[in-house]
Amino acid sequence: MTEIDRRRLLAGTAAGAAGTLAAASTHPAAAAHPQPGAKVLRTPERRFAGLPDYPFEPHYLRVGLGDGSRTTVRMHYLDERPAWPVRASGETILLLHGNPSWSYLYRHVIPPLVAAGHRCVALDLVGMGKSDKPTDRFRYTYQQHLDWLTEAVFERLDLRDVTMVCHDWGGTLGLRLLAEHPHRFRRVVAMNTGLKTGREDLPAEGWMHLATWLQFTQRTNPLILSDVVADFTTSELDPAVLAAYDAPFPDDRYQHGARRFAVLIPLTPHDEATPAFEAAWEVLETLELPFLCVFGEDDHVTGGRHEALSGRIPGAAGQPHTVLTDAHHFLQEDKPDEVAAAIDDFIRRTRP
């Protein structure tokens, strides 16, 4: 099978997309949960009742579905701010999660940052967490995720002078957001993430097999997303915490967003997304704004090596990049206090 054939296989066809959408709307369990419409699923709120260590008030905004219709998608976010007697620092921290997590990942990082005087805004990407889940799996493209994020952060929330904290896919999206809107940011903290263009050495065949399996085992191989989190933390997570990571996904119809992320990584220089990634790097390689890497020593993706970012972005020069010991990919689970302390220290050292 040629590379083009594999890409077509993963991308699917419009007919396939229509079939998926029709199947979702006629699924026998469809009537069991209140849904906002045939194009979008919404996880029932009862799934999130009693989550451990997640007392935060939910907030919602709406963004366009992106299919040319007037359909909108509801995005969930947290907006935690210091209350008296804590003096506000005037800093806004945007926390972006990756796959297959959601804002729950930051539940132990947010409180110490708020206690330090910072405002914390943590979004759930579309298809994840408490945000809506489009039923058309082909709606989840890299550009659509970026469009949703751009509309939410800059048009709906109108965030400015932002400290971006980005992990995993939150960085792969957030670094493009930074490159396209650098004037909106003060500094960046990148955690176990990167921005691949397709020109790097990647296990392309292995990644392709994984992506293919994720797309074509729907309804035949249940995807237990909490297993991914459990496998890539050094600490043993409580069953209630693992259940919280599964809460957004009552069944496979809700998992299209999580399954599709693996397809979106450029594997070769011929990938259709490569030019946009390379254009982003042209900007990132000129940015002087402070840039810090906080990586996990045991991360299976990076092995704690952050030079692909810290060695190319000018604002990263001379910063106290941190590699946390006994921390795996989900370092917010393994070392939340150290993560929060690194962010707060970085903000205080680089304040104008």
From TrEMBL:
All copies of domain AB hydrolase-1, residue ranges: 92-336
Listed SUPFAM superfamilies: alpha/beta-Hydrolases
UniProt-listed PROSITE patterns: TAT
GO cellular component terms, A-Z: membrane
Top-rank lineage group of the source organism: Bacteria
InterPro entries in alphabetical order: AB_hydrolase_1 (IPR000073), AB_hydrolase_fold (IPR029058), AB_hydrolase_sf (IPR050266), Epox_hydrolase-like (IPR000639), TAT_signal (IPR006311)
Entry's Gene Ontology molecular function annotations: catalytic activity
Name assigned to this protein: Haloalkane dehalogenase
Source organism of this protein record: Jiangella alkaliphila
